[in-house]
TrEMBL record, chain A:
Coiled coil: none annotated. Residues 268-353 form the 2Fe-2S ferredoxin-type domain. SUPFAM superfamilies: 2Fe-2S ferredoxin-like, Ferredoxin reductase-like, C-terminal NADP-linked domain, Riboflavin synthase domain-like. Its cofactor is FAD. This is Oxidoreductase. Residues 34-137 form the FAD-binding FR-type domain. Transmembrane segments: none annotated. Pfam families: FAD_binding_6, Fer2, NAD_binding_1. The keyword Amino-acid biosynthesis does not apply. Keywords: 2Fe-2S, FAD, Flavoprotein, Iron, Iron-sulfur, Metal-binding, Oxidoreductase.
UniProtKB/TrEMBL annotation, chain B:
InterPro entries: FA_desaturase_dom (IPR005804), Fatty_acid_desaturase (IPR012171). It holds the Pfam family FA_desaturase. This is Fatty acid desaturase. It comes from Paractinoplanes deccanensis. Residues 365-385 have a biased composition (Low complexity). Residues 72-340 form the Fatty acid desaturase domain. Residues 365-397 are annotated as: Disordered. It comes from the Bacteria. PANTHER family: ACYL-COA DELTA-9-DESATURASE, DESB, FATTY ACID DESATURASE 2.
């Protein structure tokens, strides 16, 4: 049956060449495309003044996630497809096959702001398969500790919603600016009231940030617990130092949202991933010239930005268009084609060559 | 720009090098303004054109299943011709130019797109985007000047073969997409010697073209006709007609871009060390527009705005009409002529050139012939820095 189907499909491909049949079907059934993973927004629920939860119906080809994993979501913002990572906050065992993500509008966050303000039912988003190492693992820990701040609660919420029944002893230490700014505040407090978790909520605008040393008092059996931490980088750095100082670094797992560094003056270290070549560049020399000077086999053409023969994927980092100064920023996991003949490094970046 | 300077009236004699750089700065500013404002409405435009084209193609193919009936044949063939023209011109040509790469949609991207054409996208991009657009109208470097089979400029040497060029041009028009495929392969040059014929790179390219043509022919002349059962032969005729219509149309439009009178050509040595301003100026003088309605502009893939397209080949095509008044104004202020005319006039002008130049140039009185061109100084070739702006961009960051 399967062979017959692929055989018939080949004939349909002959009919539609040079495009594939799915390109026609995409117009009416965008979730049926087996090669392009998409999702439809089924519902939008506000969480706080600055965050929303999106209930998504993933299309064909979605693989189930482990609680705590994240998914890269591609959103068309003013005509440009931008990709960002969001933790999955729903349980993988949902009967209706839906997943949810929670988006917190960060200042200057183009994608998060767009989603919080403009996401609506019926909108199509693009997805990558779920990924990430920040998971509960097997067997489940007898005693668990989650230390989170801001939107760092999202992967933890995914874990609690899916596996709380397997976790007998849970402490959640969560920080947010104010009580109202706590994402999932009501749900967390309800769990605490029912005695399912011990919740330590800290409102930093009034009470200041939690220091790692405070944790020793707040959680007396700190180092008897398996710990998961997610939040701003400086918080995670402090926590890692604290755990390492106590000789218990193996008990702490952290999840970082790495911001891409953009240098003000331009220039930066360019890494050509496949050849392993690393060069220091200033902000005025095209990547093509830097690469060629370092002996990397660079594709090239007009050398003036019109023929697109030199286009290669930017995997991570930032480059600036030398003609108009426009920045292109790639988050980890991205693969954004850039024209090397008219682009210069605007910070550390990695090129797929 | 030696070729121009040899003419009786040099169209740029009145421009100082500073003027030329100023033109470059003004054009960069126009470019920045448009490129910085690309957004949702442009994305919606190209997606809409693609959706329309696909609908039209699907509809026409559906109608042609019954092409046995003359009305179905006529309507289906007309619709398919339009669909095929849209696919090559407003969609394929422009996507392959990278005009829509900024959307970062892998489905509408110059590195991923394949078009309904005998020449594979990859090969066409090299000969068109890289050679033709960089070396526009440079005699001996831009093979688009007569496609290697014709003489379309007085500076190209005459050969008895050129006597037949009106006929070659007509044949090329009828089989234009195959002509382009042969041209992208540089078939004439690469078949000339045994060594070239055996070059693995050429052989791989040839194989790719054969595969592409095979698929195209199978689709239009076997699969779709077979699907239409008793209308088999009628569908073959319909598809052949649609391909012919597209060939004639795209050939005419493309002839209008660089062949009509008023368009200038350039000598190889004139582009050594060419600056950005000089490159822009060469594009301005080397291209001609077609005037007409909005529908006409879309059907030409906005190549009717050839001047704007050659200045900014990677600008979304829907923006050319928008900047045309500014470009025209710039031509006027710098005393340059903006060559433009309705389609029939431009086609006639281009054809007249093809006919006229099939004969050798009129002998020039010996005195007028410039003395032996001053031997080009044997200096090292100056690299062209066309990407470098005369004025650094104002960056917001």
């Amino acid at each position: 049956m399967h062979n017959m189907r692929t055989g018939a499909w080949r004939v349909v491909e002959l009919i539609t060449t040079p495009v594939v049949p799915a390109d026609y079907l995409d117009v009416i059934a965008p979730l049926r495309n087996p090669r392009v993973l998409r999702a439809k927004i089924d519902a939008v629920r506000p969480e706080t003044a600055n965050s929303v939860s999106l209930l998504l119906r993933p299309g064909r080809g979605w693989a189930w996630h482990e609680p705590g994993q994240y998914v890269r979501v591609g959103v068309d913002v003013d005509g440009v497809r931008l990709w960002r990572s969001y933790s999955i906050t729903s349980s993988p065992r949902r009967r209706d096959g839906r997943i949810s993500i929670t988006v917190n509008a960060v200042p200057d966050g183009v994608v998060s702001t767009h989603l919080v303000r403009h996401a609506k039912r019926g909108m199509i988003l693009h997805l990558d398969p779920p990924t990430g190492e920040f998971t509960l693992g097997d067997p489940r820990p007898a005693k668990a500790l989650f230390v989170t701040a801001g939107s760092g609660i999202t992967p933890v919420m995914g874990m609690l919603r899916s596996a709380l029944h397997e976790l007998p002893d849970v402490v959640v230490v969560h920080s947010a600016g104010t009580r109202e700014a706590v994402v999932f505040g009501a749900e967390l407090r309800a769990l605490a009231e029912r005695g399912r978790i011990r919740l330590i909520e800290r409102h930093t605008r009034a009470d200041g940030r939690i220091k790692p040393a405070d944790l020793d008092e707040l959680v007396p059996d700190l180092f008897e617990r398996q710990a998961w931490a997610c939040g701003p980088n400086d918080m995670l750095d402090d926590l890692e130092t604290h755990w390492a100082d106590a000789g218990h670094e193996q008990l702490l797992r952290t999840e970082r949202f790495r911001p891409t560094l953009i240098s003000g003056s331009g220039g930066g270290t360019v890494t050509f991933a496949q050849s392993g070549t690393v060069v220091e560049t200033d902000g005025s020399e095209p990547l093509l010239d830097s690469g060629e000077a370092a002996g990397v086999l660079m594709p090239s053409g007009c050398r003036m930005g019109i023929c697109f023969s030199c286009v290669v994927p930017l995997r991570e980092g930032a480059v600036r268009d030398l003609r108009d100064g426009q920045l292109t920023v790639a988050e980890p996991g991205d693969s954004i084609p850039v024209q090397t003949c008219v682009s210069a490094a605007a910070g550390p970046c990695t090129i797929e060559l | 720009m030696t070729t121009i300077q040899r003419k009786e009236s040099n169209p740029i004699a009145h421009l100082t090098p500073e003027d030329i750089e100023r033109i470059g700065i003004e054009l960069d500013a126009i470019r920045d303004e448009v490129m910085g404002s690309r957004g949702e409405r442009d994305a919606a435009y190209i997606r809409r054109v693609i959706a329309w084209q696909r609908g039209l193609e699907l509809g026409s193919r559906g109608i042609l299943l019954f092409s046995l009936f003359p009305p179905a044949w006529l309507v289906g063939t007309a619709a398919l011709s339009v669909a095929k023209i849209l696919e090559n011109m407003e969609i394929g040509h422009n996507i392959l130019h990278g005009q829509w790469d900024w959307m970062r949609d892998p489905k509408i991207h110059s590195t991923k797109w394949e078009w309904d054409h005998a020449s594979p996208a990859e090969q066409w991009k090299h000969s068109h985007n890289e050679l033709h657009h960089t070396y526009t109208n440079v005699v001996g470097k831009d093979n688009d000047l007569g496609y290697g089979i014709m003489r379309v400029d007085e500076q190209q040497p005459w050969h008895p073969m050129h006597l037949g060029q009106p006929l070659w041009n007509f044949i090329n028009a009828c089989f234009f997409e195959y002509g382009i495929a042969a041209y992208d392969l540089e078939l004439g040059k690469n078949m000339a010697t045994k060594e070239r014929r055996r070059d693995p790179k050429f052989r791989a390219a040839l194989k790719a073209v054969r595969k592409k043509i095979g698929k195209q022919v199978l689709k239009d002349y076997v699969v779709h006709p077979a699907l239409s059962g008793p209308s088999f032969l009628h569908t073959i005729a319909a598809n052949a007609t649609a391909n012919l219509v597209r060939n004639l149309w795209s050939h005419s439009v493309i002839m209008c871009g660089h062949f009509p009178s008023g368009v200038e050509t350039f000598e190889k040595t004139s582009i050594d060390g060419e600056t950005r301003g000089e490159w822009y100026l060469r594009q301005m003088l080397g291209s001609a527009n077609i005037s007409g309605s909005k529908a006409m502009h879309i059907m030409t893939g906005n190549l009717s705005h050839q001047i704007e397209h050659h200045l900014f080949p990677d600008m979304p095509s829907n923006r050319y009409a928008e900047i045309a008044p500014k470009i025209k104004d710039l031509f006027q202020r710098y005393g340059l002529s903006y060559t433009s005319g309705p389609l029939p006039k431009q086609v006639a002008s281009a054809w007249w050139k093809v006919i006229r130049l099939s004969l050798p140039n009129k002998p020039v009185p010996a005195a007028a012939e410039p003395a032996e061109a001053p031997a080009a100084a044997p200096t090292a070739k100056v690299p062209a820095t066309r990407w470098r702006r005369a004025q650094a961009p104002v960056t917001s960051a």
